[in-house]
Design goal:
heterodimer; A: Rossmann fold; Rossmann fold; 4 domains; 18% strand; B: alpha/beta; Pyruvate-ferredoxin Oxidoreductase, domain 3; 39% helix
Chain lengths: 593, 190
């Protein structure tokens, strides 16, 4: 059966065909759809974990327990999961286990561009790199065989283009793999120094065997076109190279890229005038191939940053610039992402942006957009959970310097709080800080496209699950000053911020209102019966064209320059009422749809 | 055959992704090798969204290089201008005559550019479609995307494929008829 699948869908299909029984992830672009698709297969227990470290630990446990497991995350998620990864490599598996890293060359929706193939070397795990959906499925199945045969977790590098592009996949049936019996074996599963030294040696021995595998696996293959120019390529970079050079050069396609098939590489390079290395981001294969004494050309000529797309290859190696029909650039306005009409974060950022006495440390999520005009609220961001802990550090620095001109506000969402905000909040209370933390609970994981999380009352399969109480969690972290508010009422938001800044000790404000794009659960309907059922309109008689409402940054507003009046687009407006409260002339009214 | 390149460009929420899904499903059924790439993630929040569709005997790259698209279909006027660089000199552009304001225009910091269609027409072969208006006349403004899909199918000579079956496989039963109607309206309009 042939299906047109994204790489992420192909991974899910591959997991099912490979007899995987346990899968877990924390959502993150471009990896999110992997688990969403895995969850559609009834034979696989599929879970959202609160963060990537927890996910990998659970997957490791399932493998030790005796069933094939899968774990998926975006590239920066692997940073969170490295602690278990490095030691999981020592323990090895019982049933096979694969960790999928979805890297982002080009940083389409990430804060950095790290090449996680480095982790294979660093953690000492072997590595597959598919170049399209068919390979993603086929290699994943192979990865389980390798994991079990060589007793190690396997790293599997996807990139945005492989994750999110569709291509044709020949599918097959699920292979029911026998569960492995679990037997207590402390020399295998307890890395005390005395045992860990033995594990280290076992791992090194398995890597020696893997070199033979790498030289013989059909996933590393030569396409000999009789040319004296050779290209060694991995991942989608190989596809890009073929797009540009077709059959005018010979190829060594690397699908299993750590350890590298150095014998095969040497044989391929022999007699070639020039060998080029095509890999996205870091010169990893290139460095190792050069170290093996094989002449090749790589990042001297090809870019290290961004995607290695065909146009960039043509430019770099052939000096060919594309013939472009250029638009008048002044006529193309940017479309930066904006908070949606009805977004419950709007009122908070409107109020925060009005104050000049705040240092706002934000986090990873839709609320990252609080840095944009018209709010211009945010000062800094680093990674998941850092709003609270880095905010704590900034406040300490201000206190040490005796600088009281600004106070720190940390701001993050519900899913991010569960991910890594809790330990950060403990840091704040335990170390007697006095920051204000705002948890924007919009009842869902928003930015990645609406995944359930421990606070929503539902799990990945859509089944009811215990709802973790954020208020109780905050209190348990030692916070004495806590209030929960409706973020659409600007006076309440303003008063809450003022209250929080003047508390003695750390304070937390929780806003609780659903994401406007959320599909309401029965509980949501009960808790928010009036949400998004209204629409606002401007009374043109009363509107004086002062543009104050536009400071809300709502995309449902439209200013008529000719008549100097504000207007509201009926389609996107959900009547949240933020602009109504900003208008100094009471010119905006809300009515039931 | 040489690989053909189609760019669908719009704003999050306009239905470019469904149109691309139907298009690629039909092309696969017709026996072509197909690859499709889209960048999403923040597109729900008012950003530009593009679907890049490639088909032929053996397609390698999932992305379309700038200056190489056979056809660019813009679901919104200014997006047509933004996607102009994808088009090869002999390529064809179809633009839906509708405007969606970016935030800078909404907050009054910029004006939506005038004469976009004239600017495009001065450079490439342009066909303007009133797809949003046509969809409203059909009774559902959302099927604008199927009207534009129809225009692609006609322009790329792909009308032999059983598109009604493809729609039936991919669209909820209750919306099938209106989508098929919209597709034919798009085919007939080109």
């Amino acid at each position: 059966m042939k299906l047109l699948l994204t790489g992420n869908e192909a991974i899910a299909r591959g997991a099912w065909e490979a007899g995987v029984k346990f899968a877990t992830a924390y959502p993150g672009t471009p990896s999110t759809e992997i688990l969403q698709n895995v969850a559609t297969y009834e034979d696989i227990i599929s879970e959202w974990a609160p963060n990537e470290k927890v996910a990998l630990e659970a997957a490791a446990g399932a493998a030790i327990g005796g069933v094939r497991s899968l774990c998926a995350m975006k590239h920066v998620g692997v940073n969170v999961a490295t602690d278990p990864l490095f030691t999981f490599a020592y323990l090895g598996v019982n049933a096979g286990s694969v960790l999928i890293t979805a890297d982002e060359p080009g940083m389409h929706s990430s804060q950095n561009e790290q090449d996680n193939r480095n982790y294979a070397r660093h953690a000492k795990v072997c590595l597959f790199e598919p170049s399209d959906s068919q390979e993603a499925k086929d290699m994943l199945k192979e990865a389980y065989t390798v994991s079990e045969e060589y007793d190690m977790p396997v790293l599997f590098r996807m990139t945005t283009r492989v994750c999110h592009s569709k291509s044709i996949v020949e599918c097959s049936d699920r292979v029911e793999v026998a569960d492995k019996p679990y037997e207590k074996d402390i020399r295998k599963y307890c890395p005390l120094p005395a045992f860990a030294r033995g594990m280290q040696v076992k791992l090194a021995d398995n890597f020696k065997r893997l070199v033979d595998y790498s030289n013989t696996t059909p996933f590393n293959y030569i396409e000999d076109n009789g040319a004296d120019i050779g290209i060694i390529g991995s991942g989608v970079a190989y596809r890009y190279a073929k797009e540009v050079f077709g059959s005018s050069v010979s190829y060594l396609k690397i699908g299993f890229s750590y350890p590298l098939p150095m014998e095969k590489i040497a044989a391929f390079a022999k007699g070639k005038k020039t060998v080029y290395i095509f890999e996205e981001n870091d010169p990893i294969m290139e460095t190792e191939i050069k170290a093996a004494g094989i002449d090749c050309v790589g990042k001297e000529q090809l870019p290290t940053m961004g995607e290695l797309t065909p146009d960039r290859i043509r430019q770099a190696l052939l000096g060919e610039a594309p013939q472009i029909i250029e638009a008048n650039p002044e006529m193309v306005l940017p479309r930066p992402p904006t908070l949606c009409a009805g977004c419950p974060h709007r009122g908070v950022f409107y109020e925060l942006g009005r104050r000049k006495d705040l240092m706002i440390f934000s986090d990873i999520g839709c609320y990252s957009l609080g840095l944009m005009a018209p709010y211009n609220a945010t000062d800094a961001m680093i990674c998941m959970g850092a709003s609270i802990s880095s905010g704590h550090g900034v406040q300490k620095a201000f206190d040490i310097k005796g600088d009281h001109s600004k106070k720190v506000v940390s701001i993050l969402g519900d899913s991010t709080f569960f991910h890594s905000g809790i330990t950060s909040l403990i840091d704040v209370t335990y170390n007697k800080s006095n920051t204000l933390t705002i948890i924007l609970d919009n009842r869902i994981t928003g930015m990645t496209g609406h995944q359930e999380n421990p606070g929503t009352g539902y799990d990945l399969k859509g089944e009811a699950a215990p709802e973790i109480d954020i208020e109780a969690m905050v209190k348990a972290c030692g916070v004495k000053n806590l209030i929960s508010i409706d973020p659409n009422n600007l006076q309440i938001v303003e008063d809450a911020i003022e209250w929080g800044l003047n508390c003695d000790g750390p304070a937390v404000i929780i806003t609780r209102w659903p994401c406007v794009l959320k599909k309401f659960s029965a509980e949501d309907k009960k808790e928010f019966p009036t949400a998004f059922k209204t629409v606002a309109s401007v009374d043109l008689e009363k509107c004086i064209g002062c543009k104050k409402c536009l400071k809300s940054g709502c995309p449902a507003l439209a200013f008529d320059r000719a008549n100097k009046k504000s207007g509201i687009l009926k389609e996107p407006c959900v009547g949240c009422g933020v602009c109504v409260q900003i208008c100094p002339k009471q010119a905006i009214e809300v009515e039931v749809r | 055959m040489e690989t053909k390149n189609i760019v669908l460009m719009g704003v999050g929420g306009q239905g470019t992704i469904l149109a691309a899904k139907l298009l690629t499903s039909g092309l696969m059924e017709a026996g072509y090798d197909v690859k499709m790439s889209e960048i999403h993630g923040m597109s729900q929040r008012g950003g530009s969204v593009s679907s890049l569709v490639r088909y032929g005997d053996d397609v390698q790259s999932p992305v379309i290089e700038i200056g190489s698209a056979d056809i660019v279909v813009a679901f919104e006027k200014m997006e047509g201008l933004r996607a102009l660089e994808y088009l090869k000199p002999s390529g064809k552009m179809i633009v839906n005559d509708t405007e969606i304001f970016p935030l800078s225009v909404i907050i009054g910091a910029a004006t939506y550019p005038e004469n976009i269609l004239e600017e495009i027409e001065s450079k490439v072969d342009l066909r303007v479609m009133a797809a949003t208006k046509m969809a409203e006349e059909l009774g559902n403004p959302k099927v604008m995307n199927l009207i534009l899909l129809g225009s692609i199918i006609k322009s790329m000579a792909l009308t032999d494929i059983d598109w009604e079956a493809i729609i039936a496989q991919n669209v909820k039963a209750e919306f099938c008829q209106i989508n098929i109607k919209a597709l034919h309206a798009g085919i007939d309009a080109v």
